[in-house]
Amino acid sequence: MSDLVYFVRKLHVYVGAKLYVSIISAAALGFIEGIGLYFLIPMLNLLNGGRNEGENLPFLAPFLHMLTQLPNKAELPAILGVFVVLLLFQAVLQRIQQIQSSGISQTFIRALRLEFYEALLSAQWAFFMRRRSSDLQQLLTTELARAAQGALQVMAFAASIAFTLIQIALAMMLSFKLTIVIAACGLSFALFARRFVQDSKRLGERMTDLSQAYYASVSESFNGIKDLKSNRLELQHLTWFKSLNDRMRDNANRFVTVQSTSQLYYKFASAILIAAFVWIAFEWLHVKTGQLLVIVVIFSRLWPRFAGLQNLGEQIVSSLPAFRNLRTVQRETEAGREPNLYVEDAEEERMVVRTSIECHGVSFRHDPESPVYALRGVRVKFPAHRMTAIVGKSGAGKSTLIDIVTGLLRPESGEVKVDGQLLIEERLKSYRNAVGYVSQDPFLFHTTIRENLKVGSPNATDEQLREALSFAAADEFVQALPEGLDTVIGDRGVRLSGGERQRIVLARAILREPSVLVLDEATSALDNENEAKIQCTLERLRGRMTLIVIAHRLSTIRQADQVIVLDHGEVVQSGEYNQLSNESDGIFSQMLAYQKQA
Ligand SMILES: Nc1ncnc2c1ncn2[C@@H]1O[C@H](COP(=O)(O)OP(=O)(O)OP(=O)(O)O)[C@@H](O)[C@H]1O
Fold first, then answer.
1. Ligand 1 atom 2: the closest Cα is on which residue?
2. 146 in ligand 1 pocket by Cβ < 6 Å?
3. Short-list 505, 497, 498, 499, CA closest to 449
4. Per the database record, which ranges form the ABC transmembrane type-1 domain (predicted)?
5. Whose CA is nearest to atom 23 of ligand 1?
6. Domains of the chain in sequence order
7. Complex ipTM, two decimals?
8. pLDDT tens for residues 285-329?
9. Ligand 1 pocket check for 336: Cβ under 6 Å
10. Is the CB of 16 within 6 Å of ligand 1?
């Protein structure tokens, strides 16, 4: 419930005064509708030949007095005229309110999207390592829309209560006792119907689980579509997808069934109660036809209000899981935030590493509950403007060490120093701006090569783009493309080979001129000729920036100034390439021997 209150507060913050104007206009609508109801009474009396009913009612008495001044023939047109004006006014107000509600809803959902997207982008890397990316996509689309809708429904609920209270007050002026009896019936019925609210909550929980599974299934199948197709797994996946969709359909149907059943009960009750009221009033109390009409009118106005409140209540509780999920993620992102995203002067905020980056006794576990350390007591020094290679078997901790050194992860114990100064929060932003990173599976946008290169350097000239491409040994193949720099490279760069993608991303990183450039298996997809070119590039870059390279292919790191060998999260060897290759009982020479055999 506190999560729901949080979102309703947000609604107040983001929408402000407009929200209250909307609630007040909803209440005003209820008032006008109620007044319109009053005018039915003199109209019906007049048609019946009488004219005294309703003289005690507020709003109506002065009007009835005016009517007595008119000639007989003008009475009905006057009543009808007022009735029509009221209905037209009500229709216009309704239209304004509809437009206003839509505006409120769009303002609110936009603000929530921005708030959550920014919170996610500001979250630390460790957060993303724990979370399924499809769950985050689902959160930003389905869950966020459900929560926004739910918060608006809470406001609609409040407006509807105000509306209903006004209708009750107006109905009481027509018949106090009758209105009390109807309101008591409505309350007892709401108590009976609370089990539908509980069912809605349960189905809402299930809706969240199924929708998460749906997003995961879609995202995993398209991310791995090549593997899926190559291994002929389409049918298996389709069968699972069908069963998931069956469950989603059944759940949605069940929700509609719950809602329509509760509404059906309200309608049954309405038919039975109205018949009972008329029977009792006519047979036992011998009330007049005009009053019977009042009973019918009051009942037909009030009862749907109760049914509407029930419906809104069911919808609100079904969106409670969405509120909870969003808040959980928000709390997690707040617990560990990256330094402020907004950089006023990017150049000023970028650190230059002048002497070294050092790790002192760094330990780290991906799961703090587990006894397994990804890094244990790591002590290494990365001299500035030199090339350091990190090698080790799969799972040795190379990527984790890179994540610590680039500031993406914080050590569990031990410390990282840059130019002799601790890498504390205040320095993290400018340090992170100084790091360029090229991964094994580089990320490219579905746009032109030019746009992809300019992502981190929007003001780069064509000359600079070409120079960076040349550095990354990518100039020849880009020139050979039909539209050169303006070639669109497809979703995640699928129209390029793995090696071409790696070189474009390397060029993009070089273009930013980072002070520290990390290549994480970034040349794994290159052939020997292009790998030799990249080695030349690294030679040239080495004097300009600090290079850290992870490579399984040891030939890539032959010219490294220093090689660090990791095993089970610990540094087991370090030194120059030739020195390590001569340590015959070391892991490094074992790795070299395996690669020579291969
Ligand atoms: N997100 C994670 N959650 C839990 N454990 C993880 C996570 N990422 C890595 N690990 C574990 O941490 C250890 C080190 O992993 P890391 O990815 O750093 O190794 P690596 O040397 O880079 O391996 P590779 O060469 O295969 O990429 C491994 O035992 C791995 O299983």
1. 366
2. no
3. 505
4. 21-318
5. 395
6. 2-335 (1.20.1560.10)
7. 0.96
8. 777 766 677 777 777 777 888 899 999 999 999 999 998 999 999
9. no
10. no
